[in-house]
Design brief:
alpha+beta; Immunoglobulin-like; six-stranded antiparallel beta sheet; 10 strands
């Protein structure tokens, strides 16, 4: 009788000791997945020895968060900082155009635009000067008269501008090629550089933020493209390759796949082209 009681006490003690570990084991879950990439007209290949990151937030949302904190100036604010005439700034704000070297620019310009915006007027004069356009008006005023004979200078200048406007209205084809003279004041290159620098900062910072603030775990696939991970608290996660690509033939894939971990269960998932983003056709940071 005593032996049975003693054995029962030992069993109870052992159960008490093991209970926390059993509860801990049952309160977490496991993740198991295979990663495959398939090139066009080819067989699936395992994604070998590749690091996947288990995040508590979608990597796409993390990149968006970083992007929103690295704020680009608005288009109007950017235009305000340009070293151009106030007239050109006003014209740019009123038109959905920043590339003044676009071959179709002449279609967006009216005679009033050309006569009113100094940069357009100068470009129009240059593109038709030197005998390039037959009958193109030539100025008769002399810059020396601007001080010595200001009234004469101003009358001749106004006569020239009136003749120029009349020629422009009669010969709209003379505007063609004006974009070739606007490279020096074209804001598009600076705007493009500003956006490119912004994208590069996001591409650099997003993986750092993901790993320092939202990383739950990371795991490497084996030679068969298989990975498993245990001890994950229940909840919603994302399996992410961050901004790293897996390559096969003509495809480059990135994953940012949601997954839910249940307590005491193993969640299994297949990572394929179907739940990936093609980095060749998308601009993910």
């Amino acid at each position: 009788m005593r032996k049975k009681l003693k054995a029962s006490l030992w069993a109870a003690l052992l159960l008490l000791c093991c209970a926390p570990a059993l509860r801990a084991q049952n309160s977490t879950g496991a993740l198991e997945f295979n990663a495959r990439v398939t090139a066009t007209a080819a067989r699936p290949e395992p994604v070998r020895q590749f690091t996947f990151y288990i995040l508590t937030k979608s990597y796409a949302d993390i990149a968006k968060e970083v992007e929103e904190k690295d704020v680009l100036p608005t288009r109007d604010a950017f235009i305000d900082e340009l070293a151009i005439s106030p007239e050109l700034k006003t014209w740019l704000k009123a038109h959905d155009i920043l590339d003044l070297t676009n071959p179709d620019l002449d279609k967006a310009l009216t005679p009033d635009d050309i006569m009113h915006v100094p940069e357009f007027l100068l470009a129009y004069q240059h593109s038709n000067s030197g005998g390039a356009t037959h009958g193109f008006p030539q100025p008769k005023f002399n810059e020396a008269d601007k001080t010595a004979h200001p009234e004469k200078y101003e009358k001749q200048r106004q006569d020239y501008l009136a003749a120029l406007r009349k020629f422009l209205q009669l010969h709209p084809e003379s505007v063609s090629g004006i974009e070739l003279e606007l490279e020096g004041v074209n804001p598009n290159r600076k705007w493009t550089q500003l956006q490119s620098a912004h994208r590069k900062r996001v591409q650099r910072l997003a993986p750092e933020v993901a790993q320092t603030r939202y990383l739950a775990a990371k795991v490497d696939t084996d030679l068969d493209g298989h990975a498993n991970l245990s001890g994950l608290p229940p909840g919603n996660y994302w399996i992410s390759s961050l901004n790293l690509d897996t390559n096969s033939g003509d495809v480059r894939l990135r994953w940012d796949v949601p997954v839910t971990i249940q307590p005491g269960q193993t969640t299994r998932l297949e990572l394929t082209n179907l739940n990936a983003t093609d980095a060749l056709t998308a601009s993910n940071p």
